[in-house]
Write a structure and sequence with these properties.
- This protein is mostly helical.
- The chain has two domains: 91 residues; 92 residues, Orthogonal Bundle (Arc Repressor Mutant, subunit A).
- The protein is built from ten helices and no strands.
- It is elongated, with a radius of gyration of 27 Å.
- The protein starts with a helix and ends with a helix.
């Protein structure tokens, strides 16, 4: 039991506490004249802390807002205020979920797969140079040492590899967009100028 309580306490500290300011602000804007915001926040913490498990919670921020909303609803019901839910539905719709939308997650995943596929088609020296420098975040010196090349050679490997990836992406996009060859070359040139090496 203590282990589960410790897990929940750590989860609250990590996932709930960072959103306390937003919840307080939301409560203050909406109900500062009707309820004690401090009491609502503390009661919301107590309710969350008394859960048997937090495994079912997918979005901690939304859960905290919903718990605070439920606490206010309970207080208002006890005070005898009617039609409370009708008043709060518009306000509740203003609570934003900070997680990215599903279509954006899918799009990012597909783009990552695309880049990984293109990286895998590069010569090993270019691919390793890009992976170590850009993905793993090693310094130019560390990357050059690992690959056994000079820093100037490393810079050329990264530039050439990135150029090949950018060109391949532009060509794929052009096929989708129906662009002509000259337009593809212009896109490659523009994109290449804006990429730090």
């Amino acid at each position: 039991m203590d282990d589960e309580h410790d897990i929940i306490s750590a989860w609250i500290a990590r996932e709930i506490v960072p959103h306390e300011r937003s919840v307080r602000s939301w409560l203050s804007r909406r109900w500062h004249h009707v309820v004690d915001v401090e009491d609502v926040v503390q009661e919301a913490y107590c309710r969350i802390a008394n859960l048997a498990s937090v495994d079912h919670i997918e979005n901690a921020r939304s859960y905290f807002f919903r718990t605070a909303h439920t606490v206010v609803t309970d207080l208002m019901r006890r005070a005898g205020i009617i039609n409370f839910n009708a008043l709060t539905q518009i306000d509740w719709s203003n609570v934003m979920d900070g997680a990215p939308l599903a279509d954006r997650v899918l799009e990012a995943s597909q783009e990552l797969e695309r880049v990984n596929r293109l990286l895998s088609q590069l010569p090993d020296t270019y691919r390793r140079a890009i992976e170590l420098r850009r993905i793993e975040g090693l310094s130019r010196r560390e990357t050059a040492e690992r690959l056994g090349v000079s820093e100037d050679a490393l810079k050329k490997h990264v530039e050439r590899g990135m150029h090949q990836v950018i060109k391949a992406m532009a060509e794929q996009d052009a096929r989708i967009d129906g662009d002509e060859r000259g337009v593809v070359e212009q896109k490659v040139e523009v994109i290449g100028k804006h990429r730090p090496h």
